[in-house]
Amino acid sequence: MAFPRFRPVADHAVLVEFSDAISDAAHGAVLRLDRAIAAQPFDGFVEAVPAYVNILVRFDPLVTDHDVVEAALRHMQTDGTAPVAQGAMHEVLVCYDADFAQDLAEVARLTDMTPEAVIAAHLAGEYRVYLYGFAPGYAYLAGVPEPLRLPRKPVARRGVAAGSVIVAGPQCIVTTLTMPTGWWVLGRSPTRILTGESARPFLFDVGDRVRFRRISREEFGHADG
Known about the structure:
2 domains; alpha+beta; Gyrase A, domain 2
């Protein structure tokens, strides 16, 4: 079946799929449609939830239906080669001191790098927000440099603090809750991802870019997010 694919979800949503595999092209198509909907929402539109290769479009079933929404979304399709506008750039602070970076030494061992080389590689990554995940504010950032791309651990670590900067494969997250994770903990950030604002609860939008900036433990203690 050719892409894009339009799949009905329950009585109140349409899932638009652009590929079976993660790619910049597929995610670019997701972003173009997301922004087209935001610029001119159809009657009954409720919410759009973009992800790696698809976007879930929710609607009010008392106002419209799957066929009407699919037709509206097809009409919004744009030239697949059109450039996607660059998202906003955000700077995220991170401290790599040992008590914040429980897995830094092990990542260095597994990648045959020094801890400082691991830190330099992480700081050099070009990160983009691909989607929000299972927990509030869990923005999945693509762009971890190839030398740092380790699979998830076989056993999760419990009680990983909020603000931890974690990586697995090509992805990076700044955690917002204390919870277990099987990802590798490289440092901790005082930057607030949860804003506390009802109109904009999260710091990032999907499509935004992120760069990390190293800070000292003293700077961490004085940072206000």
